[in-house]
Design goal:
This protein is an alpha+beta fold. The protein is built from six helices and 21 strands. The N and C termini lie far apart (149 Å). Keywords: Hydrolase, Membrane, Protease, Transmembrane, Transmembrane helix.
Amino acid sequence: MTDGWNWRQPQPPPAAPPPAGGSPWWSDALTDPWRDPYAPSAVVMPSAPPTAVPQPEAVTDPDAPRRSLAPILLICLVTALLAGGLGGTLGFVFATRSGFGGGTQLGGPPLAAPGAAQRAPDSLAGVAKQVQPSVVTVRVSGAIGSGFVATKDGYVITNDHVVEGADDTLSVSFSDGSTAGATLVGRDPESDIAVIKVSKGDLPAVQFGDSDSIAVGDPVLAFGSPLALNNTVTQGIVSALDRTIQAGDPGGTTRYYAAVQTDAAVNQGNSGGPLVDAAGRVIGVNSVIRSVGGTETEAGNIGLAFAIPINQAKRIAQDIIDTGKARRTVIGAEVSAGGATGSGSASGARLRSVQAAGPAATAGLKSGDVITKIDGHVLEDGTDLIALVRKYAPGSTVSVEYRRGTGTKTASVTLAADAK
């Protein structure tokens, strides 16, 4: 028996005549291999199409040895164990660094303070650390203002309007939380400077700067207790110099400032606190804010704050410490309200009257003259002249430019202290 690929159809034996009388259905029975028990048997496969190329089937040898799966399973097991161990290790490390320890422990071990926490002395944080111990919160009859230590033995400079109405309840608190009683040494309502004495010695005094050497754009820090928030520091720049301000409550003292303007955030409670430069030196006393609010209780920071120049404040404070009162600088003339002409067509401070033998008269100025500049500062009206004159110390000599009729003249005026 073959597989059919090389098989050839055998030639059948000669057909025998059908038996007589046989059935016609079996007439070919002698030539039918399936009917002839003596005919050879064969399996016939249909011929493949002419274009197909027959391929032999692969035959598996039943006697060939089978490949073992043990090495493959062993490799998979080792790989799984290594992956699990590595994953567990990494998970533990990340959890520890993220502050999640094992068991009930919250957080990891204490870490050393980062180097960034140590600020350079000339950084803003370094300046704040240097100045803050010298800043005090002034408490007067329930009201709160600010001030700063001017001398080691306890003299503190603040605003006059901060200590207005002061009584035996006057006290101060320091940045470290300690408190001390204080007494009023003296005050000058017109300059808005006052001095109090703290009953505590060996205090850290501030360093004073020079308000005449600062420039617009210089960085500054404002210290104080705005809205009763003690130990507050805000940052800004010098926005303008010699900004003339007229302030005061209706019916009260009118105050004139040739102020240092800043955009540092200043609010109620900052009054009397120091304005310092980038080196930590005091260049002004925070005193006035400009606000769009209709009343004092509605007033808030809008980026317009004004400080008394420290050269002026220090001089007045020294007068108060030495004599109990301050000298006021005058030019020896009275000015007309408003502008020079009232029409707005020309600027300047018109002299309504000139004191005989006073500084202005001695320099040759007369009633009716219009001062347009003082030491190069352009004057818009009489307020500018008063504020700028009070910025200088008595005895200072300033140059003035003035109009008389249609002509322009200059003069040198030696300012004096008033007779009060």
